[in-house]
Amino acid sequence: MQHGPAVRRRKLGAELRALRTSAGLTSGEAARLVGWHQSKVSRIETGTSGVKPADVRLLLDAYGVSDSQLRELLMMLAGSDDTGGRHHWWHAYRGVLPPTYRDFISLESQASAMRTLETTVVPGLLQTPEYARAVTRAAVEGLSEERLDTLVEVRLARQDVLRADRPLVLNAVLDEAVLRREVGGPGVMARQLTRLVEAARLPQVRLQVLPFAAGAHIGVTGPFVIFSFSNTSDLDVVVLDHLTSSLYLERKEDLQAYTEAFNALQIHALSPEESLDFIAGTAAGA
């Protein structure tokens, strides 16, 4: 269990080590190809030291890695501001967003799929502007209107991943409490529920409602997110949000446990079709 930057260094190092091995090179041979000392390659591969995006590019070239999507992902893990010519928009908000939130957004922007259990509020990727404003104001006390506007702007900008050329595939299980909790007043909540109905009809979005009638379930311990990447499962990560920070779980046993938990929640939840009717019915009565 570590914070985002450490997880990203370890994952990047492990992937670079695997690519070197696939290329049939020892760490010493790789170092000679790029003009480094062997110890630098070892430190990068073990995640004990950071690595510049330019250094990652050198190693990928030396290993003959031509997969543009994989190169882009590994450059992102190295902290590149510009991978494949695409600027990371959230860097413009460095003065506003804490590092853990920026880490989360960077993973979200590069992931191919996201599985999330939400027990209290609507997922950020599906929030309306009014709902996002009400949630942010409640979660962070003492916000100025200017800072509040900025945080809502970021929340809405994140939603572009669902409209990209290769959209993020979102699988969300929502506890019934998410639909029943009135956020921002009846009008705001009614429009938010309508937005969920619209989102549930998108081909890249799968929503399931876990009704109160399901009783106690494995998700009572709290919400979580699982990010998956199309290039390699070795980069998958679980994110747990806390009041002041986020924690990242990268061990295979942790990933397996949360994946099994999410699969169990999907089994106990209403089907996507039943969930759509349930949300629409809740909206009609809101």
Automatic annotation (TrEMBL):
InterPro entries: Cro/C1-type_HTH (IPR001387), DUF5753 (IPR043917), Lambda_DNA-bd_dom_sf (IPR010982). Gene3D superfamilies: lambda repressor-like DNA-binding domains. CDD domains: HTH_XRE. Residues 16-70 form the HTH cro/C1-type domain. Pfam families: DUF5753, HTH_31. This is Helix-turn-helix domain-containing protein. It comes from Streptomyces bullii.
